[in-house]
Amino acid sequence: MRIGDLINRVAGRDKEPKEFLPRKKKKLSAKELREIRKKKAEGRKWVLGLVLVTAIISLGFWAWGKRERSLSGVISPIGESIREISGGGLTTKKVETKEIEERVKDQVDDLQGTYDVYVYNLTSRHSYGLNQDEVFPAASLIKLPVILGLYQEAEAGRIDLEEEYILEAKDKKSGAGVIQYKPAGTKYTYRELAKLMCRYSDNTAFNVVRQLLGDEKIQAIIDDLGMTKTSLGENETSPSDIGLFFRKFYAQSLLTRSHRDEIIDYLTKTAYEDRIPAGLPEDIKVAHKIGNETNSFSDAGIVFGKEPFILVILSKDALEKEALEALPEITRIVWEFENR
Question: What is the pTM for the complete model shown?
């Protein structure tokens, strides 16, 4: 026997290959068939469910990404606007403002006195204006940090806005407002005093709250805001300082949303709608505060257009008739630029 044949015999390679026969299928009972169908159906449900969950998660990530992209140039009332104020995370959109600045300048060049303007777009974050850092009489614009201080003290638990104050004769101040005509003994909650300061620029309400808070605390609030050209004692401010106040106020970095929105409501539809509001379409909401002093006529606030923006217009050594015509016209020019 040859060596090769011996190897094949040992390995079993000399045997004839067996014919391949298919395995006989076991006949399944009706019950077993039902069980198999049931398991297959459950399997399909699990697969379908997994596909749906995956689709929903993917859609969610897509929607979130789209939202983030859409917010890249918008300040939301809470998160994005706070980051904008702090200078982190967002960049300012470059906008050519030379033309609008020239138009505003042309509007006031021939008028008596000095007019300064500050504009800040809360969506694109571009700003522009005239003489934005010049010092002006604050007049009733100084009430803004006082109103803020009242609500901050309430949020700190040191003041109850529903507590009643009993008016005394010595509290009364002439000028703007309605409380001066009320008899001593009339009761007002601190919330009502804030509302009267916003709606009627009430000097008596301001006097009561100023005494409640104290000048030192009020000036500290002003300083903490970074309003470096604003003084309670000197009653002076600048366009950029008032603009900064509204930026931080809008961003909700100063108060809770409910208190911020309450004040915005009070600053809307005031007794003085002949300045900034008069230069806007009738359906546009504006939360604003006016200021009046001898030869000084001002207005400042947030214009809630498609892209909300802050507008501050201050004047000094001005004629009242000219000022009351100029402020709405400046507003109209700015509105057209912001909505071009």
Answer: 0.73
